Every structure is written in C-alpha cells, then in structure tokens.
C-alpha cells in the first residue's frame, strides 16, 4: 500500500509547510462554517474552505515542482517575518513599564529609552540624528 502510494506520488510535489498550513486553515474554516445554521453569513467559510482544499490538492499532485517549491519558500519566509515581528512585540510589551520606544525621524530605526526622565535628547544609534522626546 505504501509502495503503491510512493509510486503514485513520484514526480509529484506532495506535502510541504504551505500544505500543512493550508490544511489547518481548511479545517478551521470548515469548523466555523458548522455554525452557519446559527449565522447564515458563516456559510461563506465553507466555500472558502472547499476552495483552499482544492488548491491544496492541486499543489500536492502538481508536477511543476519548482513552482510549488518557490511558493513554499515564499510562505516560509513570510511566516518567519511574522514570527520575528511577533517576538519583537512581545519583548516590547514586557518592557512597557520601564522603557519607551521611539522611531528615528530620519531612518525609522526604533530606539529604546528608559521611562520617566522627562524631556531628553535621543541620539539615533544608526544615523546619529538627534531628536527630543518625552521619556
Ligand atoms: Zn536614525
């Protein structure tokens, strides 16, 4: 059975990170759509779920492996960027009582300063631009 499956899948693309993510999405959407009897608007989730499922199957059985690989790479990069952003937000939230965060008006670099020092002159560590803010 397994061998048969392997032979069937050879030359096809199969499952990657993006498929796993889409699978979870399909599941979530289908579960949400179960409440459509309660709120008819939710039936749209059923159709989105079905479309995603079809797209996922298309990716799995696709023979254009380089194109699918490229899609997956894009997805993995995007996910990585979100993880980094989320991590930064968490760190910032943890320091919200002791520090303030300002963006440099020139290069948009975020600068962290200790709170409660009144008006201070901040020097951007990246471009050396000075700007005054309340801390
Ligand atoms: Zn700067």
What series of H and E elements makes up the topology? HHHHEEEE
Overall residue-averaged pLDDT value: 93
**Shape, principal axes of CA atoms:** elongated
Q: How many domains, in number, for the residues?
A: 2
Strand order of the largest sheet: 1-2
How much β-strand is present in the residues?
Answer: 5-15%
Distance between the termini: 67 Å
Looking at this protein, list some descriptive labels:
about 140 residues; 2 domains; two-stranded antiparallel sheet; two-stranded antiparallel ribbon; 4 strands; about 55% helix; binds zinc ion
Question: Could you please describe the fold and organization of this structure?
Answer:
With 135 residues, the chain is α+β, with helices and mostly antiparallel strands. The protein has two domains: 2-94, no CATH class; 97-135, no CATH class. It has four helices and four strands; from the N terminus they run ααααββββ. The chain has helices spanning 2-9, 17-33, 43-61, 65-94, and strands at residues 99-103, 110-114, 119-123, 130-134. The strands form two sheets. A two-stranded antiparallel ribbon has the order 1-2. β1 and β2 (110-114) form a beta hairpin. α2 packs antiparallel against α3. Residues 104, 106-107, 109, 124, 126-127, 129 line the site of zinc ion.
């Amino acid at each position: 059975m397994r061998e048969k499956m392997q032979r069937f899948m050879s030359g096809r693309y199969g499952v990657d990170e993006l498929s796993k993510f889409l699978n979870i999405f399909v599941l979530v959407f289908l579960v949400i759509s179960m409440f459509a009897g309660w709120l008819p608007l939710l039936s749209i989730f059923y159709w989105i779920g079905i479309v995603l499922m079809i797209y996922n199957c298309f990716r799995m059985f696709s023979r254009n492996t380089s194109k699918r690989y490229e899609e997956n790479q894009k997805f993995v990069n995007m996910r990585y960027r979100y993880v980094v952003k989320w991590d930064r937000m968490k760190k910032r939230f943890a320091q919200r009582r002791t520090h303030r965060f300002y963006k440099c008006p020139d290069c948009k670099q975020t600068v962290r300063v200790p709170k409660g020092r009144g008006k201070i002159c901040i020097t951007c560590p990246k471009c050396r631009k000075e700007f005054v803010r309340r801390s």
